[in-house]
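writing this on my phone so excuse typos. first protein, seq and then structure
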Amino acid sequence: MKLVAVSAGLSTPSSTRLLADRLAESARGELAAHDQEVETEVIELRELAVAVANNLVTGFPSPQLATAIDAVTGAHGLIAVTPVFTASYSGLFKSFFDLIDPDALTGKPVLVAATGGTARHSLVLEHALRPLFAYLHAAVVPTAVYAASEDWGSGGDEYTEGLPARIRRAGGELAALMAVRAVAQEPGEDDITALERQLSDLRFD
């Protein structure tokens, strides 16, 4: 299987890229623990910024941008991570997904995540990111992950989970959905056998 993470971070190093890497590793680890091989790829949108702008103006993607779009639409699972700009996703993030065919992500398992300087922006996951991918008919996992500056290195407390725990839970949910969709797309199985395998694969910790 192929897992693609899209990072819209602009700086180097980037907390957005770091979160994308950790989420991808979490999902990959869950799949590997259940004997599922997965190839991971991270797409850095800042490297495609000029190509994205040119595509919006001309209607034609550069070869590098076309390869990135093909990777996203052809993946078995997608992780989409953006920094918070003006209480929403970044313009570069939105512009890239504006170039995706509206039907290309139908049913695709997607994990949404965001980074920001303060926890006050965490609702961006629900009022901006989740509706965007619902419009694209993606299957967004229940747990979305927001990482504020103070979350890095935090273990949480008795009332809240720390960032590592949220990453593990979200990665497990994405892995489970990817496994289910892969089984559903396998040829030659009757509906009962496919359903039994799907229920078995859903038992990710």
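second protein below, same order as before
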Amino acid sequence: MSGPEGSIRGMLALNLKRVRSRRGLSISELSRRSKIGKATLSQLESGAGNPTIETVFSLSRVLEVPISDLLDAQQPTGLRVVRARDVEVLSGEGIDLRPLRRIESGQAVFEVYDQQVRAGERRDSLGHVGIEHTVVQAGRLTVTVDGHEVELEAGDYVGFDATLPHSYAAPEGTVRSVLLLQYRSDQRLDAGSPHQIPGEGAPCGA
């Protein structure tokens, strides 16, 4: 990251007002729908806020756009190497996400994240647009989707409609996994505009 413009905070500040305006929502109305305070939203739009996972996912759900339309991602081309040490972490209740790559293929859009659920903690989501895919790399992960609970171990996969309420928990220790969010291309706010995941402005590093 070379500066705030390339950070998650900077990217969200650049895009939130644009997306909100496209949706025809005032800050007051967005606050009412998202349950995020007006002062917090104003700070986020000015680049002074400190967004969490919960905030970003709530905005994605209410504005009905992929996460990367808020974090400013683009389809990469050619060889792309993403170093974990260079990726800014988006943290929230019980979980840390590192945005790695956005992939567009036909009518499908995918966002790839390195996901870590912290030991003994849980993350709840009211739901957001898209289909969610998770592959556990290490640890034991408890996933609950619309009241249905499953236990996953290293190598296990789960996929579900992300609009349903869901949660991740790591009761026995820290869990590492790959999170893949899948969208239809028509769910993007502006498919024709250039986008960039934080740090993906060069072929190497994110």
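The two ends are 8 Å apart (CA to CA). thats all i got for now
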